[in-house]
Every structure is written in structure tokens, then in C-alpha cells.
Amino acid sequence: MTPPPRTAAPDAGATLSREEAQLLLREAIGQSAAEQTEVLIEARRESLTRFANNEIHQNVTSLNHTLTLRARVGRRTGSASTNRLDSSGLRQLADRALAIARLSPEDPGLPEIAPPAGLPAIDAFVPATAASTPEERAAAVGPVMAEAAARDLNAAGALSTVAGAVGFANSRGVFAFQPETYSQFTCTVRSGNSSGWVDRHRRDVRALDVASLGRVAIEKAERSRNPGAIEPGSYTVVLEPNAVAELVLFLATLGLGAQAEQEGRSFMGGRMGERITGERATIADDPFDPRAFGRPFDAEGTPRQRVTLIERGVARGVVHDRRTALKAGVESTGHASPPPGTEGPLPYSLVVSAGDTPLEQLIASTERGILVTRFWYNRVVDAKRTLITGMTRDGTFVIENGQLTRGLRNLRFNESVLGVLERADAWGREAEPTVFDYVGNCVVAPALRVRDFRFTGVSPF
Amino acid sequence: MNDILERALNTAQLEGASYAEARTVDARSQLLEVKNRQVSALNESSSLGLGVRVIVDGSWGFAASAEVSVADAEACARLACRVARAGAKFRRGPVVLAPLAPAVARYQTPFKLDPFEVPLADKIALLVEATGIMEREKAVRVAQGGMQFWEERKHFASSEGARIEQRIVQSGAGLTAWAVDADDLQIRSYPNSFGGQYECNGYELVERLDLVGHAAETAATAAALLVAPVGPAGVTTIILDGSQVSLQLHESCGHPTELDRALGHEANYAGTSFLTPDQLGTLRYGSPAVNIVTDATTPRGLGSFGYDDEGVPAQKVDLVRAGRFVGYLTSRETAAMLGQTSNGTMRAESWSHIPLIRMTNVNLEPGTWTLEDLIADTDDGLLMTTNRSWSIDDRRYNFQFGTEVGVEIKQGKRGRLLKNCTYTGITPEFWGKCDAVCDAAHWEIWGTPNCGKGQPSQTMRTAQGAAPARFRGVQVGVGTGS
User: Fold this and answer.
1) How many CB pairs under 8 A join A and B?
2) What is the pTM of this model?
3) DSSP string spanning A194-222?
4) ipTM entry
5) Among candidates A36, A242, A47, which has minimal Cα distance to A137?
6) Pairing between strand B17-35 and B38-56?
7) In the predicted model, is pLDDT for residue A18 greater than 70?
8) Chain segment A312-323, per-residue pLDDT in tens
């Protein structure tokens, strides 16, 4: 019996070593009576110190691991997941996956499981993040709350650290393992009628200067006090990197994965090689960009590739898993999604190429416009047109003669993502990662200045 | 299991906890998805673990582990206490819990057919047949059917003496047709978007839905939407079907009446609320036709249970009475801040999460109209059915929703099918324009399987009961209208 990852020292250190993963995955495959077997394990310790109203109100840490086994019999496949990693749990899992496979109809589109291949390495594990303690997290956020309180402001947010590992093996001899860490500081500071926000994501918790970041949110809350209203309409906007990332993320599910293209749902459908957006827009999925929280292999054990999706406004490609690649007659790009994977392959490390203008200069060069810190509750209105609606939040400002002059009440927008990239006339120099889920869904984006951005409504605050 | 919980509580108290609770959850789920008669996803998942939440030095701490043993219970409890102590220096005052009589009880959601006992082959065959019927419609590129089932077996114990066992079984199923041409993509779902209908129920829900019997109409409507005109832009009367009213309730009443939001606890992520405590009992939320309750005892409701994850019994509580804002969803901690006792809405996604205030079943009480009478009583307007898009600001004022289907109403009669219909408004103004709600015969408890909240983010299954309702003078077509 393989000893499972232990919680004996559940507050620090790695969650799963390479050797433990190898033993565990080997045992899982050994328990399987299927013709072919694939096994994926994810282990994760997540700790988070959360504060609101200038006090710590939630403080948590948890350790979990999930092992998914896919069994194949002929052209039939079955999948099951568990967090019971003892021998009995693995046997039950293997038996259940096999039973599901035998009950399933034949799958004519079933691809071969991945062959062994050289796997690129990504340096993604920072011991200091894994060793972060509740005392250190509390001490880091304390000064932010104190400074907010001293200015009669109200701070809320969280400092979180994650240490995890992902491992994959199959019965053709593939073994892949990646330890990783992640940390985030996010903070909203409110006055009676305004708010400011900051949000940063790093592998190394020491790279989060929490006190300085907190001051960014404090300053935005103070500068946007007593916000005024502005009529809905089309305005020049300067979008900070988080706001750009919120929009670009939609491209992933609306058409940058091959399943959407093959099902006819993609905005890229039938337009490969055509210009679909502005000539300055280049977007790639690049797991090897150190800012992009990438993984070197996917949920099928295929090495991940860098894929250019949109190049200078021209549709260039989509990402594939083994199923969509087989159907398209190409090689998988290593973008299989974790189970159940109903969305098909997706780009998980989107990188929008930056420009050469500092954010301050984007603002300074705008005669009249609106600065947007972030967008909130964004949803698809029209998928084929990449039309999204959402709200501004936590720091929306009027720009007049290159200066932020006053705060604004929050605005609703209805905009096409491709249209925004088309009308972006200045591209920021500094790009920031926004992580929408630590296992992926990262977008690295610069700030943008965009003409004729369409606001359609206004909130009372 | 009881030994493990007892050890966790005992260790926490020895470590200085003034309050402790321990919860094990043994959960399993099954997901099936069929596209165009092929199984596209089929996964069974199980998860067992222990979470311990404590108050030490007036501060909360929580630790959770996938290992469930006496030794792990001790380790978890010690870590929870350490985590709590680390935060205690940064409290403005100690956590105070509203009083609660500790329950010793067992509860199980009622159902007839255990969905995990129904043969997988039968489920697959049903979805293959339904999607095969949908595929006959040429414009339908993807004919999708799905089912999801969940079971949770929870054991809860608190240092105050609560000992509760619960078994919650939930089921869901539905169809989606994606019709595609060179320029457009239209979706039609049955009986609702987000994968269909979800209930605290057994496989009898799937049988009742009759997916095969509704497949052809679902596909035909998707195809018809491709060639339908775009809905209008302007100000008009709208009638929302029950499922869309359900999501409107979820977003514009359920979330803003969560007391943790109103108190600022979620300010950094989910947001706050325009329903601040100083307005409790006085604010005009809607018209006199609007009566809204939160009711964790609603039969079949996806948000039904016996006890919440603080051990508080399921309750029915007024949120809006005759249009006036009169109540919140509360926890023991937040209720105490208002001098109240908890109305039992704290739920955690899993053993590895702390409980948060979550909607149970937030229900708009039925009115007196039939839908046909309501349409006949409307000179000019839109009937909007099944959500397609939903967005609302972080205080829950400004919203914009879109529906899969629009039908114009002219002189009291149904007219043309319309696509890409949207409407927008400000929550209290919008509910103030509600002049009619349909009767109990039109009322359904609609499940929402994907409600997000909290850091780390948690997904919860809630429900909202609703019948079709009419709203006057609403802005429509923003963003898309012709």
C-alpha cells in the first residue's frame, strides 16, 4: 500500500513529492484491469487570511487531493475521481471507472492515449510560498487595515497562498509531475461613497508588497470620493490590465479552443487567416511565459505548446486536445482540460502582447476619457460577436486633459471584445497576470486606451 | 465517525477554543453529458473529509483535511486553533454567536428513486434518444443532453452539544440545442438554461421532465430563433416566465438580502448590498404585489435541508412583505449583530470550506393571474423566456438580463418569435413596476446549481420559486435591440 500524502504537518511545505506521486500513480495503474489507463492527481494546500471592516473575519487552511482514473476497453472509456488514496480506495476507483467504461457506448472519436514524450520543465514552486504561515499572513495584512482605519476608510480583502502539485501517468509509460505555488493579495478599500481596489498574483508570496499594494486601493478610494454621474454613451477609456484581462478571458471559451470551432460556435469559425481585430492585437497561449502560471503538460499528459492564436489581428490558430486534434488531423497542442472537460481544450495561459506606453502616459495623453480599474460580473450577450456586458467597479474616474479629476458612479457596458481590441489605439507597456483560477485561466494583459467604448447604463453609486 | 468528531471538539477545547464545530462530509456525484448521441462526458466523483471551525480568543479559525481519522482530527483541530489565534490580534472585538438550542437529529431529503441506483445504461439511452430527436433539426449543430446527481452524507457536532446527521440527494437534467448558421448562434434549453432543472429529489425528476417528449420542440425553437427578428429597443411592458423570474429573484433579492454582504464581509469579492441594515423594515423594495420569503423547507427545493452547517434548523422567513424589505438571510454571527437569532442559511460547498450565508429557496409568493389572462391583459409588450445572459453590479442595483426566447405581445395576443432580447433596470425601481404575479398553478421551484461566493470561492446549489410576472415600463434591447 502506498502511503497517501499526509497531513501530519498540514500547515507548511510541499503537498506531494515527485516520488510519492510516482508511487501513487503507478499503484493506481496497477489496480486497473482496463486495457489502457490514465491517471491524473492534483494535490493542493490552500490557506487564506481574509479581512473585512478592518479586521480578520475568516481564516482558513485546507489540504485535499483528487485522483482521476480513466479506463479504456476497446473504444469505450470511463472516468471516476476520488480523494481516497489508500489501496482500497484506488481499487474501488479503478473498478468503478472500468465498470463505467463497459457500460458506455463505443466512442468513434476516441483518440489514442498520449505516448511518452520529453516534457519541458517550468520552475513553478517557491518554497517560501509553501511555507507561509497564518501568523505571517496576518502580520502582512495588519498594516493595510491599520492604515485604512487611520484614514477613516474600510478595508476588505484576502492574502492567500497555495502549494500544490499535479501529476499524470498512463499505461503507455508517460509520467509527468509539476509542483507549483501561487499567492494572491486582493484588497478593496471603501469610503462612505467610493471604493478602490488592487489585485496581484505571484508564484512567490514575497513578491507581493502587501503594504504598498494596500496603499494603491486606499488612494483610489480617496480619489474617487463623492463620485459624479456621467451620461451613458461612447467614451475613450483607459482600461487597467485587470479590466483588459476580464474581457480577453471570454475569447478563450468563445472560440480559441478547437471544440468551439468544431461545433460551429467559435467567432473564429471559417475565418482562419483573416483579420478579425486590430492589427496591434497579438494573443498567444504561452505556458512558458513566467508570468502566466502555466503548466508543462495537460490532463492527457501531452506536453503543452506555445500557440499563437491571433497575430497582428489575424486569426492564426486554436488550441487542441487529443480528441479535437484527431478530428482536425493535427497534433494535440497539449491543452486538454481537467475532468470532466465539457468545454474541450482551452487556452489556460493567455498572453496579450504589450505595447510601449506606460499606464501614466496612457492617462496623460487622453484629453477626455474614463479610467476603468476593473470590470465586474461580465457575461456573454452575443457569442458570435464576442459581445459582453458588465459593470465597472472599485475605481472609475474621469480623465480631463490628461489628469484624473474626479470619481464616477459605476457604469454598465455592452461591448465586443474584438471591437475593443480593434479600437485600442495605445497599448500599455506593463502587463500584469490575472488568475481566474489557480489551476489555469490566467490572462497576462497590458493596459489599453480604447476609442468609443460603449457604456449603456449607470448605477446609483 | 462520532469518535473522530468528538476528538476534534475535545482537542479544540483543550487548545483554548471557546466554541468548536466539526463536520465530516462524504460526498459523491455523477455527471453525464451526451452530444449528438455520443457520450461526451461521464464522470463519477467522490470526496470524504473533515473540517473543524473554532473560535479562539474571539477569532475564527478553520482547518480541513482529506484524511479522516482520530489523529487527523486532532491535527486539524490544533491547526484551526493556531489559525484562529493568528488572527485574534487583528480583531476589533470578539466574535459573538446568537444563542442556539443544540439539536440532536437525523434528516434525509425525501425521494423515491435513488439516482445512483438507476442503471447508467438507462440514463445514457435516454440522452441518446433525446439528442437523436434534436439532431433531426438540420440547423441544430450540437444537440446536448445532460444529467447530474449529488449525494452528501454529513455529520456535524458542536461543542455546544449539537449532533446532526443528514443525507441530501439532489438531481438535475435537461437539454440544450445549439443552432448555427454563418452569422449567428442561437441556444434553446429545456426546461431551463444552466443544464436544465435541479431539485432535492431522486430520479423521478428525470422521469417527470420527459426529455424525449420535449426534444423536438426544443430543437425547432433553436432553429426558428436563427431566422427570427432581433427583439426591439425601447421602453415597454415585459412578462417574464417563471424560470427568468427565478434568476431575477436570485440576483436582485437573494444576494442583497444576505446579511454578510450587507455588513461588508464580502466587500472584496461578491460585493455588498443596497439593502443596508438601517433600511430594514422601512425600505420600499417593490410593489405591493411583491412578497418574497426564504424557505429551506420548500418541497423539492435545491436549497432545502434539515439543518444548516451551523446546526440551525431549516426555516421559512419573510424577506419582502407587500413590497417592503423586512428580513435578511442570516448566520449566528451576523444575526447577533442585529440582536436576532439565526434563520439558518449557513452552508459550505464541501468539508474543506467554511459555511457562508447562502440562499436556501428564495421564493416569490404566487399571485392570482393565469398566464393567458396576463397576456390578454397586456396591450403591447414582450414575453421573455429562459435566461441566456445575466449581469448585476456589486451592490445589486443595476442589472441586465437576456433571454433565449422573446415573443411579442400585441393587443393581448402572442405575436412573432424574437431573438436576442434583453432588459435592464435598477432593482427597487424594477420590482416597483411589478403589477401582476401568476398563480400557484404556474409556480415552480427552479434550481440554480452554480451560485458563486466567498474566498476561496465556493459554488452552492440554491433554488428560487416563482411564477410568471409582469413589469411595466422596462428598458429593453440595450446592447442588442433593433
Assistant:
1) 268
2) 0.97
3) -EEEEEEEESSGGG--HHHHHHHHHHHHH
4) 0.96
5) A47
6) antiparallel
7) yes
8) 999 999 999 999
